[in-house]
Design brief:
The structure holds two protein chains of two kinds. Chain A is of the alpha/beta class. In chain A, about 40% of the residues lie in helices and about 30% in strands. Chain A has twelve helices and 14 strands. The longest helix of chain A is centred in the middle third of the chain and has 18 residues. Chain B is mostly helical. In chain B, about 80% of the residues lie in helices and about 0% in strands. Chain B contains twelve helices and no strands. In chain B, helix 4 packs antiparallel against helix 11 and helix 7 crosses helix 8. Classes of the chains: A alpha/beta, B mainly alpha. Chain B: Belongs to the ABC-2 integral membrane protein family.
Chain lengths: ~325, ~260
């Protein structure tokens, strides 16, 4: 046990399982998922469509009852006190949650009032959120007249209106153009940096998980198959890829460089020696020194991290980007 | 926050949306108005000829309650379509992750449908007055009480079913399949006293038979007799059962 408040997990899931039957067939959407989320993290579920990300999120947000297992969210058990969980969290569904004929401010005010916030406070918070999420001037516009990015930011504002310490975002950037996506990412980062909000998102976009998340839980077929920071995941799975181009004898270079610490693989193609190594930066220093000492005619060096797609491929045998299509 | 104030929040939102696109309540009035104009005059003649259960001179008082039931069966009974739309847009889920009472989510919507049907009733009664409906004021006021009970029951049932069925393609035919027999068996066009015995028996197994008879009797000026009481009891009991059923469906977590 620890005495530090910050170390108490804001989400703790143990053996979460959800099965349902469709046409007499039993589908195991989530199969015994365990994980913890610390306060102030931006954490992401990464996985293809159908991996069980949304189902897990719906359990944590009290929309679904788990078939087995338990979860506490902001210190409250989802089974024992779902209303208590609801008071403490925000949730933005993948489909959003707005009606085209409703107006931005009136929905924000209503949403605040559903959390029991008095009317004058609700009005003020709606205005604050419009400022914070670049929705100023859109307050009285019907939702159907908003752009995709504006509507998505409205969805997120609706999930934040009661200032929850934990917010769930299900596929926050699906269907947005690149500019709106990076704007949205900036908003999500600011939410954590300025307010300390814990953000739990799901995504099947590698770049989103990579750019936004402090930590990733890789999900496939209803299980968490790996977790860690994006960098740790990439390092752990494949090592870094280093390419050295030489003016002289590449085969001699290969023989000399094969002693590299942390080496996984080394291969020559034409004038290039390609090697993969755990902890590429350290290997690179050794490689440069050794090349110098052995008097190799080194022309250029390139180091590349494996992408999360490489990680996913290594873990599951199928590529996430193929799964996506 | 109390369930009542939560319900009022939802009601206000739904009502605002209805007022923003008032087409449906207006279109809903169109069909009963056609019946008033094109069938009412025939019924006046039929009544004049002396038909059992259709007193001469009471043709409009006989006919209008049936049209009010019809308004209910094609208005609030189809209100669940809006919850399917809210499911699809994510609005319903957004509200379900707030701590608001599950019952308020239903009650606010039912209140909207009830207010709309009461407004339609006022319009229909005014039009019927133009055609020649004359009835004592307490009887007319009782129409609103009956209509409120009908709206509460049908709307609650429809919203609950909407959550179960979840698709407009299945929901609409399902309700049509239920609404038309319920309407015919209530005896809205001709008195069920004309029916052969088997039809009379079947008709007595459906709630609106009692409700429409009670409403007619109230318009004839009898407010406390057994027919009115039976109609009121059936209307209130149906409303209560449907509301309970709807509330249970709204409270479910696994949907």
């Amino acid at each position: 046990m620890t005495t530090s408040g910050a170390a108490v997990p804001i989400i703790q899931a143990t053996g979460l399982t959800h099965t349902f039957t469709v046409g007499g067939r039993t589908v195991e959407a989530v199969r015994g998922v365990d994980f913890e989320v610390r306060p102030g993290e931006i954490i992401g579920f990464l996985g293809p469509n159908g991996a069980g990300k949304t189902t897990t999120l719906r359990i944590l947000t009290t929309l679904l009852k788990p078939t087995a297992g338990r979860a506490t969210v902001v210190g409250v058990d989802v089974n024992a006190d779902p209303a208590g969980v609801r008071r403490r969290i925000g949730y933005v569904a993948q489909s959003g949650g707005t009606d085209g004929n409703c107006r931005v401010a009136e929905e924000l005010i209503l949403q605040a009032r559903l959390y029991g916030i008095a009317r004058h406070d609700a009005v003020r918070r709606a205005a604050d959120l419009c400022d914070r999420l670049d929705l100023t001037g859109l307050a009285d516009r019907p939702m159907k007249t908003l752009s995709g990015g504006q509507r998505r930011r409205t969805d997120i504002a609706l999930g934040l209106v009661h200032q929850p310490s934990l917010v769930f975002l299900d596929e926050p950037s699906v269907g947005l153009d690149p500019q709106s996506r990076s704007d949205l990412w900036a908003h999500i980062r600011r939410l954590r940096d300025e307010l300390g909000t814990t953000v739990f998102l799901t995504t099947h976009y590698l770049d989103e998980a990579d750019a936004l998340c402090d930590r990733i839980l890789v999900m496939n077929h209803g299980r968490v198959i790996a977790e860690g920071t994006p960098d740790a995941l990439k390092r752990r799975i494949s090592g870094d890829v280093i390419s050295l181009t030489l003016g002289g004898d590449a085969d001699r270079a290969k023989a000399v460089l094969a002693e590299c610490p942390g080496l996984d693989e080394i291969a020559v193609s034409g004038q290039t020696v390609r090697l993969t190594a755990e902890g590429g930066e350290r290997a690179l220093v050794w490689l440069l020194r050794t090349a110098d000492r052995a008097d190799l005619d080194l022309r250029s060096v390139n180091i590349a991290r494996p992408t999360l797609d490489d990680v996913f491929l290594a873990l599951t045998g199928s590529s996430l980007s193929e799964n996506d299509s | 926050m109390s369930v009542i104030s939560e319900s009022l929040l939802i009601f206000t939102r739904q009502m605002r949306l209805s007022l923003r696109s008032p087409a449906w309540p207006v279109i809903g009035l169109f069909q009963p108005a056609l019946y008033l104009a094109f069938l009412g005059p025939l019924l006046v003649r039929v009544a004049g000829a002396g038909v059992d259960g259709l007193p001469a001179g009471a043709a409009w008082r006989f006919f209008v309650p049936g049209l009010l039931i019809q308004l209910g069966l094609f208005g609030p009974l189809f209100a669940g379509l809006s919850i399917i739309a809210d499911l699809r847009s994510g609005v319903f889920e957004r509200m379900r992750v707030t701590p608001v009472s599950r019952f308020a989510l239903l009650a606010g919507r039912v209140m909207r449908d009830t207010v709309v049907l009461l407004a339609q009733t006022a319009v229909l009664l005014a039009v019927a007055y133009g055609f020649g409906l004359r009835a004592p004021l307490p009887g007319l006021l009782l129409m609103f009480v009956f209509v409120a009970a009908i709206a509460i029951g049908l709307s609650a049932l429809s919203h609950g079913l909407g959550l179960l069925v979840r698709s407009e393609e299945s929901f609409t035919p399902l309700l049509n399949a239920a609404a038309v027999p319920l309407l015919l068996l209530s005896g809205i066009l001709l008195p069920m006293t004309l029916a052969p015995r088997w039809l009379d028996v079947v008709s007595r197994l459906t709630p609106f038979r009692y409700v429409v008879d009670g409403m007619r009797t109230a318009l004839y000026g009898d407010y406390t007799g057994s027919v009115v009481m039976a109609g009121a009891a059936v209307a209130v009991a149906t409303a209560a059962v449907c509301l309970l059923l709807g509330a249970r469906l709204f409270a479910r977590r696994n949907t």
